[in-house]
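Entry:
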Amino acid sequence: QVQLVESGGGLVQARGSLRLSCAASGSIFSINAMAWYRQAPGKQRELVARITRGGNTNYADSVKGRFTISRDNAKNSVYLQMNSLKPEDTVVYYCNADRLRLDPYGNTWSGWGQGTQVTVSS
């Protein structure tokens, strides 16, 4: 099956930077859109940034100009470069693959990674 494994979270001071990585592994034919979401305790998971296979991106207003999403299709990976971090960016970040193609016959998989904690100290 498919797994999404995130890495790169941790503790950083305000105005610092972190780079999150997410690698998809398993029986993968191709991946369409990939995205990063985040979720604070007691709140709904929210979209941070999304990138299509062709490289089109969109961002939450709260991270525009600070975060950059990118991907490496050959490595089935997506990245999130986070600059100018703020204490309010302190949450768990989740990688998402939407309708990842398992084969040429239309079978797909959508799912989440296990999450990686980002903590920004003031």
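The mean pLDDT is 96.
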